[in-house]
Design goal:
This protein is α+β, with helices and mostly antiparallel strands. The chain has six helices and five strands, in the order ααββααβββαα. It has a five-stranded antiparallel beta sheet with strand order 2-1-5-4-3, sandwiched between helices. It is rod-shaped, with a radius of gyration of 47 Å.
């Protein structure tokens, strides 16, 4: 039979594990939102910077510069934001892109629906593979390049979602490490607490068994304060009552035996005398 100590210990650890799992689920949800917002904001600021650079260039020459003339600028922003960068003109033709984006430009076509939305002057924020343009889900931010109120082109900045997973995993490794340490401490604490709880219960159980065998001398002396201390006092009162009751029972039996002994002696003597007299009478006859 499972002891109460084991039951309490297992329930306590189960409660701690349940709390850890709940915390993990909640953290996962909030980390998703946090990092998505963080990456989106970072892409938005990067896009704003590139828009500013190409707007200034357009104001000087009347056309958007090609990749060759702004290669270092695009690669700098690409490395800083860990993002793919694409710049296109008012017709949707690609003018420039970062070095890491070249393989996508060669093998795929930018979704024209997104290009048209940006060229209409709207800011675009989407997540997906974008008709397999990227080889994995990506967070994409698109912004128009506007000069003197006219949209002259647009910018796409995109970050692969696996980067988000890597960032989350780095945080989760720290959280898991902290949880393992906390779990070890929780197990130690659970063992100590269950010992403190079950030790007086075991003492009470042993005392009850002793009294059940007829030994009414057993008393409890629990040092714990609160309910356990009160329980020990009540137990000792019960033991005193049982001991007094047992003593009364013994005294009663002793007194009854004593009171019955005298008349029984008289009766026995009278019967013996009568028997003797009857015997003598038969002898005389």
């Amino acid at each position: 039979m499972t002891s109460i100590r084991t039951k309490i210990f297992v329930q306590y650890i189960g409660l701690v594990l349940g709390a850890f799992i709940m915390i993990g689920v909640i953290l996962s949800y909030f980390l998703d939102n946090y990092y998505i917002d963080k990456l989106t904001n970072q892409l938005s600021m990067t896009a704003d910077s590139i828009v500013s650079v190409f707007s200034d260039a357009f104001s000087q020459s009347g056309i958007l510069p090609s990749r060759k003339s702004y290669n270092e600028v695009l690669n700098f922003y690409s490395i800083t934001a860990n993002a793919h960068i694409i710049v296109f003109d008012h017709l949707g033709n690609i003018q420039a892109y970062s070095a890491v984006t070249e393989r996508y430009i060669t093998n795929g076509v930018i979704p024209q629906s997104l290009v048209k939305r940006v060229l209409s002057g709207k800011t675009v924020s989407e997540t997906g593979e974008f008709n397999n343009f990227f080889d994995t889900d990506s967070i994409l931010m698109g912004k128009p390049i506007i000069y003197q109120g006219e949209t002259v082109g647009g910018v796409f900045c995109a970050t692969p979602v696996p980067i988000l997973d890597e960032m989350k995993w780095d945080v989760f490794k720290l959280i898991i490490f902290a949880m393992l340490i906390s779990l070890g401490l929780a197990i130690l604490l659970a063992w100590v607490l269950t010992t403190q709880i079950t030790k007086p219960l075991k003492q009470i159980n042993d005392a009850v068994k002793t009294i059940a065998k007829g030994d009414f001398e057993k008393r409890l002396n629990l040092s714990q304060k609160g309910e356990m201390h009160q329980l020990s006092l009540d137990f000792n009162k019960m033991a005193d009552s049982l001991q007094n009751l047992e003593q009364m029972r013994k005294n009663f039996i002793s007194n009854v035996s004593h009171e019955l002994r005298t008349p029984m002696t008289i009766i026995t003597g009278s019967v013996s005398y009568t028997h003797l007299r009857a015997h003598e009478t038969r002898g005389n006859l």
